[in-house]
Amino acid sequence: MKARIFVLALAPLALFEIAVVASEPAAVLDVRQAMQQGINAATMEIWDVGNNAMGDDGGMDPAQMTPEKWTRLETAAQDLKEVALSMEGAETILAASPENTPAEDEPGAVSMADVQRYIDADPEGFRTAARQLADHAGLLVGAAQARDAGVAGDLVAQLDQVCETCHSKYWYPEQDALALR
């Protein structure tokens, strides 16, 4: 009977320990997974809102932005920021986990071994690019909160270039080199 009481008394501590461990950032980042599950989803949501609120001048038309659209934009930008910060803060950066590596013989497939090599050659540059993405997303969060269609529209339009800065260095730098020829 005493053993059962002791175990029951420790149960809340065990749950606390599990909660603490679950809330700590992952030490190992699977870049491909973060892109697939976080970055892509948030970016597509941002572009969906921005593209569907585009005015005749190519910017975001405030008249087309409803409270729901502002909330969607803010939420997606916050999600993007959080994933980018997790990328910046990872102790170990893996291009892809073994179970998430695409078949390299597929047309257009990028070699995860090559991506890993590019990241390993400049992990701090990768972290800096992730920080720049987080900062950009943070600005977009602020613009959405302020309901500033002009600033938000500019930030949505610039997002592709922010992404491309990292992709061209760590995902497919050989294509960048070909374009310069």
Write a structural description.
The protein has seven helices and two strands. It is mostly helical. The chain has a single domain (29-99, 109-173), classed as Cytochrome c/b562 (Four Helix Bundle (Hemerythrin (Met), subunit A)). Residues 1-23 and 177-181 have low confidence and may be disordered.
What order do the strands of the largest sheet run in, or round the barrel if closed? Answer: 1-2
Give the overall form: elongated
Structural class: mainly alpha
Order of helices and strands: HEHHEHHHH
How many helical stretches?
Answer: 7
Give the averaged pLDDT, no decimals.
85
> Mind telling me the C-alpha Rg?
21 Å
CATH homologous superfamily title: Cytochrome c/b562
The low-pLDDT segments are 1-23, 177-181
Write the topology of this structure.
Elements: H1 2-23, E1 28-30, H2 31-52, H3 67-89, E2 92-94, H4 112-121, H5 123-146, H6 149-170, H7 173-180
Parallel strand pairs: 1-2
